[in-house]
Design a protein that fits this description.
Order of helices and strands: EEEEEH
Helix content: 25-40%
Low-confidence stretches: none
CATH class: Mainly Beta
Shape: elongated
Strand content: 35-45%
Number of strands: 5
Largest sheet: 5 strands, antiparallel
Distance between the termini: 19 Å
CATH architecture: Roll
Strand order of the largest sheet: 3-2-1-4-5
């Protein structure tokens, strides 16, 4: 299964960005989002180091809520 993780853009340098989520910081390629408006403070869906789509803050929050539910259910199955 492949998962995209919502992350907030902290800084942008050309086609690369520093993004953070839940205390984890990563260097992310913005190459696949050429032509999209990406801003510091905005949110992107990240998979294997590439931003795949721009998200609203609400979309990012909702996605994290769903991921938390999956992780909680996974912990209850053990």
């Amino acid at each position: 299964m492949c998962l995209g993780i919502p992350m907030q853009v902290v800084s942008i340098d050309g086609y690369n960005a520093r993004c953070e989520a839940r205390g984890v910081s990563r260097e992310v390629s913005l190459f696949l989002l050429q032509g999209e408006e990406i801003k510091v403070g905005g949110h992107v869906m990240v998979h294997v180091g590439y931003a795949l789509q721009v998200m609203t803050e609400q979309e990012a929050r909702s996605t994290w809520e769903l991921l938390d539910e999956v992780l909680a259910a996974e912990g209850n199955d053990a």
